[in-house]
Every structure is written in structure tokens, then in C-alpha cells.
Amino acid sequence: MNVSRDSRPASAASPGELPAPTASPPQGAVPAGVRSVRLTELRGAGVRPRPLDARALAALAANPGCRRRALLDGAGVDKAALARALGAPAAYGQSQFAIMRGHAFEARVKADGGTELLRLLHERLAPGSEPPAPDAVATPDLSAAGPEGRAARTALALRAATEAGDWALLDHPMLAVEVAGSPAYVEPDAVVVHPDGSWTVVEIKSFPMIDGSADAAKVGAAARQAAVYVLALEPVAGHVAARTGRTVRVRDRALLVCPKDFSNLPTAAVVDVRKQLATTRRQLARLTRVEEIAAALPADTTFDLRLADDGRTATRPAEELAEAVEAVDAAYAPECLAACELAFHCRTRSRQQGAVEALGRGVRGELGGLRTVEEVLAAAAEPAAAPGEPEGPEGPDDPAVLALRRAAALRAEALAGAAVPPPRTEEPGCH
Ligand code: SF4
After folding, report:
1. Where is this region: Disordered (predicted)?
2. Which of 283, 317, 343 lies at the terminal end of a domain, its last residue?
């Protein structure tokens, strides 16, 4: 599921190859060269852009109000290294053991030309059709230089397989998707082409499926990733349909393959990604364009860590980096802790500012116009106005203020013992 980012257009594919389609630049967009220079400045001269993955894209789409993440991801800044340099390293991610176990499981699922994978897919998604013969599944070579070359090769392979009208298994195809005005390249575990011209995204995960069900949060995350892949496949499908004259459909039901129970035998389930697809599409479209965010920053803003010769140690003072990071608005929510490398830094800042967002989106919504913990406590402590007295801006009509005052009064009563009944001398019926 690796993803690469490149500021060059996908149309730079080799002559004769089908270019990987990306969204055309909107009117008034900053020229690619100018954008590329500014993004390089933000990252630091000579620093390679950090690849994203579909998980990160899904997380980005889940928090479209965060300009900070949009800019850092758009510029390809290594957020994990930045968090370390800020003194707030991320505390999530897979262990090396889990990664190796995942790779071994994926290799097993795809062994023998994907025979078992195709059997599972046919069983779950096309039970009434002719099953694919083991030697009749095309497994095109997708190797090419760079992400653009691989995306172009993938588009060619999808076109050839769709034209042929047979089963085909594309192992780690490369797809282009536009994120906040910058093209990014995502890599699903597999895409299967059906004889009817439809395409299915396959996600292979190492978490177990026990008695046919798996951890809902993990399945949800897999569905959001699959939605990113479906989104990236759609323009390719449009391209292939125009060139082949066939009806090409990207299925909105992905195949999730996991270890069965506590074994390492594969099993699969169909995951409906329509909801995630609609959400991701809407959220990615709403993301502010990276160059707009960059243009609003002081001209000398950069997230360059100024790495030492070992390529790992940041020599730039943490205060300077923090200043650069704070120059971009963030939208912290507790969900960031499971999705963004900067979460500990942003949480600390959010708490220092007393922002109610740090308490969660649900609480934030309940508190209406109250933006800080200080405002909330002040509203709760304010005695109710006497009849005829004017109220403040958050007057008695504000249900959040009324609820806070009621809660504060109940708490005061409870602490004063007024609401606590006197202890019983004898429990009735208890001897
Ligand atoms: S942790 Fe910070 S940068 Fe990351 S998404 Fe949350 S608010 Fe944005």
C-alpha cells in the first residue's frame, strides 16, 4: 500500500504508453513548476518527498479542516521525523514483527498466480459465473521506472485485460489520485479484472476474521483505504472505457482477505465501500489547495529539519520548528491520536490553548458557541440572571449554557451533601 508523490504530471509517461489519468488542474491553479519550488522550500532543499499511503489519505480526508496536515502531506514532509524533532514522537504504527507477518500472509494469499485469491473472490463476488481456471488468469508485469511509469503501466495492463475479457490479477498496481491539488500515487494490494469488464479492489490484512467477523474499527479503516483505491481507479476506468468501447465498472464492493480464525489460512469478506467512497470523495474535494495554504504563510516558513550527516538527526532548534508548525492552522481532535504523527504535539498545543476540540468532536458540538474550557467554566459558574435582567450573549436561550448551569448546580449540591440522603439506620427487608 505504498504511495509516492511527485509534482510532475502523469502525462510524462513514456511515448506510446497510456498515461495515468489525473484530475486536470483547475482554472487559476499555480503552475506545477512554481508549486514544486515552494513545496521543496517547505520540505527543505534536497529532502525527498515523503510517500503517503492510502491509510494516510483516508485520515487526511477524515479531517479536512486541518490545513496543517494538508500542507505537510501535500509538501511530502516526513511528519514522523518532524514530530520527533519537536520532542513529541508518534506512538502508533505497526511493529516490525507485525509488518513481516503481514507480508508473509500476503505472499501466501497470492501464491500460485493468485489461485486461492481468485477462488475466494469468485466465491464471494461472482458465485453464479464461470470460475476462473488456474492457468487462465493473466498476471501482467507492472514493473516500470518511477511511480508515473508504474501508473502508466498499470493503466495499460487494465486496458489490455479489460479488452481481452478474461480474468486478470494485478499485483500491487500503481494508481494516481489528486490530493489537495498535488498528484499522489497509491498502491492497493491487488486489483482483479473480471471477464465482464468490472474491476475489484482487494485488500489483504493480517488481522484475523473470527467466525466470519473481524474488528469493526480495523474493517472500517480497510474500507476507507479501499475507497481511496476505488476513487483512484475511476478515472482510469473512464479512460479505458473510452478507448475500448466496453462498459467498465469499478465495483464499490471490495474484497477483504484476512487470516481465518487463529490460523494463517486466508478467508475473505465483501466490504461495501459506498459510504466511505462518498465521504472520501467529498472530503478530498473540500481540502484546501496546498498552494493556497502555503501562500498565506510567511515567505521564509520551512519545515526543513536540517538533518546532520547521518541523515537522521535534526539540527534545527525545536522552537524554530514549532514556530513554523504553529504558523499553519490545525484542527485537532482525539481521533488524530490514531491517525496522525503530529498528534501529541497538536494535543499539547490544543490543551494549552484550552480548546474544547481537545475534548472530542461530540463535546465540541454540544458546547455550541463556547470555544475554550475557560469560557465553558465561566458560563457554568455564572448565576442565572434574575427575572427582567439582561442576559449575556450566551443567554438562557442557549441550551449549552443552560445545561452547563444546571450541571454546575447539581454538582455543587452533590458536593455540599444536600442531594445525598441521610444514611439509613436499618435496611428494610435485610436481616
Ligand atoms: S494531529 Fe495535528 S496536524 Fe495531524 S491531523 Fe490532527 S490537528 Fe492536523
Report:
1. 1-31, 126-146
2. 283
Q: Give residue 404's domain range.
A: 361-385+393-416
Has residue 173 been placed in a domain?
yes
Same domain assignment for residues 128 and 275: yes
Beta pairing class for 253-259 and 198-204: parallel
**Residue 260: closest CA among 120, 363, 79, 138:** 120
Question: Is 77 inside a domain boundary?
Answer: no
Q: Which residue has the cell 521506472?
A: 145
Co-location of 374 and 269 in the same domain? no
Does this model's pTM top 0.90? My answer is no
248 occurs within a structural domain: yes
Query: If you ran DSSP here, which 8-state letter would residue 339 be given?
Result: T
CA dist., res. 130 & res. 291, Å (int):
50
By the 8 A CB rule, do 339 and 59 touch?
Answer: yes
Q: Is residue 343 part of a domain?
A: no
| CB of 342 sitting under 6 A from ligand 1 | yes
Provide the domain count of the chain. Answer: 2
Point out the ligand 1 atom lying closest to the alpha carbon of residue 335: 6
With contact defined as beta carbons under 8 Å apart, do 313 and 336 qualify?
Answer: no
Pocket test for ligand 1, best of 68, 71, 86, 351 (most atoms within 8 A of CB): 68
Which residues does the chain have with pLDDT short of 70? 1-35, 92-94, 180-182, 288, 383-396, 418-431
The residue nearest atom 1 of ligand 1, judged by CA position, is: 343
CA 349 – ligand 1 centroid, Å: 11
Instruction: Report which of 334, 358, 293, 345 is spatially closest to residue 81, judged by C-alpha positions.
Output: 345
Same-domain check for residues 276 and 368: no
- Single-letter residue type at 399: P
- Whether residue 68 has its Cβ less than 6 Å from ligand 1: yes
DSSP labels, 287-355: SPPHHHHHHTS-TT------B-TTSS-B-S-HHHHHHHHHTS-----GGGGGT-TTHHHHHHHHHHTTB
Indicate if 221 and 369 belong to the same structural domain.
no
- Are residues 252 and 368 located together in one domain of the fold? no
Centre of ligand 1 from the C-alpha of residue 363, in Å: 18
